[in-house]
Design goal:
By secondary structure, the protein is of the alpha/beta class. Helices cover about 35% and strands about 15% of the residues. A ten-stranded mixed beta sheet has the order 7-6-5-4-3-2-1-8-9-10.
Length: about 350
C-alpha cells in the first residue's frame, strides 16, 4: 500500500530567522502553534482520509522547529500508538544523544537539517555557530539509528559553494544529501539583477558539476545517498541519455515530477491545507473546518490542470518533469503554471 504524505507545520516558533525563510519573509506578525486538541483532530482526520483512498499516512513534521512545540512529545506518543511513521525536519540546537534516543523510541525514521553554504555563508543565512552545530549533531542521529538528512536551498548567493558542502557532508558521514532551489519571496529576489537569481544556463552547468561529483562519490562507494530531488534532473538526464521516455507511456498519464495534487498535502500551524508550502497562495481549505476528502477531490483540482503549464504543456517531458511550480510561482507573481525560470530547454516554437 502506498503512502500519502502530509507535511505538517505544527508551530512557527523557531530559534533562527533565516534570510530565505518563507514564514518570516512573508511578515508573520504572530507566531502560531497548533493546539493539542487540534493536533489530535489532525491525526484522526488524516488517518480517516487515507483509509478512504487505501493509502497509509506518513507525516513530515516541521515548523518552525517542531521540537519547540509544547505538546511535541505527546504528539510523538500518539503517532507511536497509531503506528504512523514520520520524519522530522528541524534545527540541530536541541538534539542531544538522549533526545535522539527518545526520538527513535517513538518511531522517528529520519531527521532533516539544513546546510546552506560553507560556514561563513551558512551562518549568515541562519545564525553564527549553526554550521558547526549542524554537523556535530549528525553523529547523535546516527548513534540513535535515525537517518540523517542534509538539505541545501540553492540560490545565486551560494551556488558556487555547494560542491564544497557536498564534500563536507560526505566527510561528516551524512546518510542522505539533497538540494532544492530557493523560492523567491519578493519580486526583487526573482529579478535577474538580484544576487539570489540563477540563470538557466548557470543552473544547467551547476547540475553538470553536481552530477560529476555525485557519480565520483558513488563510484567510490561512499555511504551518503545523493537524492536528485529537483525535477530538472529529469531534463538533464534526458539530454544526456540517462532518462528515456518509455515506449509504453500512455498519453495523459502523469508518471513523475511535482507531487502537488498527487500524493501530498501541507498542513500549516493554523490548520490551513495547502497544495504546497512553498507556493504561498496555495491554500485550498482548512483541516479543522473542512472535510479533507472534499478538498482533495474539488479544490485541489486547480493544481492538476497539466495542460495549463505555459511552457511544460508543449514539452515531451510534461508527464515526468514540469520543473518546480513553486519556484515558477515565486518568480511570476504566484502563477503556479508559469515557466520555471531555471529551465534551459528551448522548445521549437521558442527558437523560431
Amino acid at each position: 500500500m502506498q503512502y500519502f504524505a502530509f507535511q505538517w507545520h505544527i508551530t512557527d516558533e523557531c530559534d533562527q530567522r533565516c534570510k530565505h525563510c518563507y514564514i518570516f519573509a512573508e511578515g508573520h506578525a504572530l507566531l502560531v502553534s497548533m493546539t493539542w486538541e487540534n493536533m489530535q483532530l489532525v491525526v484522526q482526520k488524516c488517518v480517516e482520509f487515507c483509509k478512504k483512498f487505501n493509502r497509509l499516512p506518513y507525516f513530515y513534521i516541521t515548523g518552525g522547529d517542531p521540537i519547540l512545540h509544547p505538546n511535541f512529545w505527546q504528539l510523538l506518543e500518539l503517532l507511536k500508538q497509531k503506528e504512523i511513521p514520520f520524519t522530522l525536519m528541524g534545527n540541530p540546537f536541541h538534539l542531544t544523544e538522549e533526545v535522539c534516543r527518545k526520538l527513535r523510541s517513538f518511531g522517528c525514521e529520519k531527521y532533516q537539517m539544513s546546510i546552506d553554504g560553507m560556514e561563513k555563508t551558512h551562518d549568515w543565512f541562519r545564525k553564527p555557530g549553526s554550521f558547526q552545530t549542524t554537523l556535530e549533531k549528525v553523529a547523535c542521529l546516527k548513534k540513535a539509528e535515525i537517518t540523517s538528512i542534509i538539505m541545501t536551498t540553492v540560490s545565486g548567493t551560494n551556488i558556487d559553494e555547494i560542491p564544497g558542502v557536498v564534500d563536507t557532508v560526505v566527510k561528516t558521514g551524512v546518510d542522505v544529501y539533497a538540494f532544492a532551489r530557493y523560492v523567491p519571496t519578493s519580486d526583487g529576489k526573482s529579478n535577474e539583477k538580484s544576487d539570489w537569481y540563477i540563470s538557466p544556463e548557470r543552473y544547467r552547468e551547476f547540475l553538470a558539476t553536481m552530477d560529476k561529483k555525485f557519480k565520483e562519490y558513488e563510484k567510490e562507494g561512499c555511504e551518503t545517498y545523493f537524492n536528485r530531488k529537483d525535477h530538472l534532473w529529469t531534463l538533464y538526464q534526458y539530454e544526456n541519455g540517462e532518462f528515456k521516455i518509455p515506449d509504453n507511456a500512455e498519453k495523459g498519464t502523469i508518471y513523475g515530477g511535482c507531487n502537488c495534487g498527487n500524493c501530498h498535502f501541507t498542513i500549516s500551524s493554523n490548520g490551513d491545507l495547502m497544495a504546497c508550502r512553498r507556493v504561498s497562495n496555495s491554500i485550498v481549505g482548512n483541516i479543522i473546518k473542512d472535510d479533507i476528502k472534499d478538498v482533495w477531490l474539488n479544490q485541489m483540482e486547480s493544481y492538476r490542470n497539466y495542460e495549463k503549464f505555459s511552457k511544460c504543456s508543449k514539452c515531451e517531458l510534461l508527464a515526468w518533469c514540469r520543473g518546480c511550480p513553486a519556484v515558477a510561482a515565486g518568480s511570476h507573481g504566484g502563477n503556479f503554471y508559469s515557466e520555471d525560470p531555471q529551465c534551459w530547454k528551448k522548445l521549437e516554437e521558442e527558437s523560431c
